[in-house]
Amino acid sequence: MPDDPLGIFRLTGRVAVVTGAAGGVGRGCAEILAAAGAYVVAADVKDATETMEIVKARGGDGETACLDVTDKAAFDELTADVAARKGRLDVLINNAGIQRRSTALEFPAEDIDAIVAVNFKGVLFGCQAAGRIMLEQGSGSIVNIASEAIDRPAPQILAYAGTKAAVRQMTRNFAIEWGSAGVRVNTIAPGWMLTPLTRQLNVAGEEGAATDEESLRTRMESRAAMSPLGRTGRPADVAYAVLYLASDASSWVTGQAIRLNGGSSMPW
């Protein structure tokens, strides 16, 4: 046992890119990785300035980047630029995602295309862009954020669930191909939590309707009741799991899916 067993979680000197970092889970991941010592690039199609202000106010370091994950060339350019300036790229958190709802029978083609572009292609492009750098340097950890929807069917989320299941399988393929080169690829499949993405849904799970605090409280209580632990998730719950997978503490972990859902689904 080393003198400092918790030191294995430290990321001092490492460089991480987090997508979808302007808020919610992405912001939580950026904060905890920076707190562990990583230089964090908070990337988002939205302005991630507030995230970086929080990171730096807590003693961390990093920068923001405007990134549309559906743009493969932009993803390649971002990772190459970060690696050139910082000398390395150690961690990628593929967190950016969108949700649109419809019945399975009537799901609009344009909504399916949008979800596939962000949730599937965006993750694929990220893995490819970061993977090229990590394979050359002989080390790296990629964490793809999926959803408990990979195990738990629900109405009106056909396209979302399908892309998240594809992310799970994509993770396994990259892990198989890249493990011998020292690059690990894992998935986290979170359960329901309050984020900007889920806040836009009302108690019936319908998107676009304004959610008052009463219906939001009812929705959270119903979700909490699904868990043996009796609560919904928090972005910090995902962030700490991300820290584990990004750090050397998980050096023998690849191709896995961590079901971070309070026990609301147990597929095994």
UniProtKB/TrEMBL annotation:
GO terms for molecular function: oxidoreductase activity, acting on the CH-OH group of donors, NAD or NADP as acceptor. Pfam families: adh_short_C2. Transmembrane segments: none annotated. PROSITE patterns: ADH_SHORT. Keywords: Oxidoreductase. It comes from the Bacteria. Belongs to the short-chain dehydrogenases/reductases (SDR) family. This is SDR family oxidoreductase.
